[in-house]
Amino acid sequence: MPELPEVEVVRRGLAEHVVGRTVESVTVTHPRSVRRHIAGAADLAARLTGQRVASAERRGKYLWLTFDEPDTALVVHLGMSGQMLVQPAAAPVEKHAHIRAALHDGAELRFVDQRTFGGWALAPLVEVGGSLLPEPVAHIARDPLDPRFDAEAAVAALRAKHSEIKRVLLDQTVVSGVGNIYADEALWRAGLHGNRLASGLRGPVLRMLLTEVGAVMEEALDAGGTSFDALYVNVNGRSGYFERSLAVYGREDEPCRRCGAPIVRERFMNRSSYSCPRCQRRPGGR
Ligand SMILES: [Zn+2]
To answer: How much is the mean pLDDT over the chain?
Structure first.
């Protein structure tokens, strides 16, 4: 599952190579990739044809394109393995290219998705809190990289949540874009165990945690951005950040980079959580 920094790399690629181009035709070759577009493949193709792409937008891990026609967005679900590739129309078609949009400049925007959990769907744009969002994204909170992210409001919302802080970070309603990896990294930086109750944490502690969430994403984006090739918009694979600088995630039994204690792995929400048993004390003791 791509996390926010990977999705932002894709968005930047689309902004550079797709925005301003007009869609000349759309070909759908796998029905699963348009299953979220209830009106079907022919409707999607007809409505996209002739549209000029106005912008590439993102909130949290959600990605969409807008068009000169103002009321509609193309929501791109990357799923587990989705890629948005911009290729010359004459380039060989990838094995798992399930949707292809021919652009007027001779390029083709291709949605390649081996596992077919992702897809494209048109959705109406609605106004929420001063921003225009596709309807399926309307409930998603701003992410920490959003210039209009309100940290004080997020702290207040976190303090009202009587559930574990990691669970709240992951649920996308107070702050969006935080996946398992970045949650673990930010909690380690803040010295907090993910099972601590959000409502039991003081304002300054939560503020620091949100700062670390933003910082860890910025660093990942800096690292992930370096692997971006001019004509190849690719979300598959791990960012450079993944290999280089993770402090806890995936480091079971390796020494904590701060205190040397072996990192522990625990089950949390059917996933693995990594933490330092010394720097991040578990609530209730152990
Ligand atoms: Zn430690």
So the answer is: 90
How far, in Å, is the centroid of ligand 1 from the Cα of 186?
13
Residue 241: the pLDDT is: 45
Q: pTM of this prediction?
A: 0.86
Nearest 10 degrees: Cα torsion 15, 178, 274, 215: 70
pLDDT for the residue 4: 87
Burial class of residue 183 in the structure, from the number of CB atoms within 10 Å of its CB (0-12 exposed, 13-18 middle, 19+ buried): buried
Active site residues: 2-3, 61, 271
Tell me which residue of 135, 49, 168 sits closest to 99, measured CA to CA: 49
Distance, CA 190 to ligand 1 centroid (Å)?
Answer: 11
Is the predicted pLDDT of residue 238 greater than 90, yes or no?
A: no
Residues 6+ apart with CB under 8 A from 124: 71, 72, 73, 134, 135
| pLDDT of 225 higher than 60 | no
- The span from the CA of 123 to the CA of 137, in Å, is 10
Q: What distance in angstroms lies between residue 198's CA and the mean position of ligand 1's atoms?
A: 21
Distance of alpha carbon 145 from alpha carbon 122, whole angstroms:
25
* Angle between helical axes of 151-159 and 203-225 (0-180°, round to 10): 120
pLDDT value for 227: 40
Give pLDDT, residue 222.
Answer: 79
Report the separation in Å between the CA atom of 280 and the middle of ligand 1, taken as the mean of its atom positions.
7
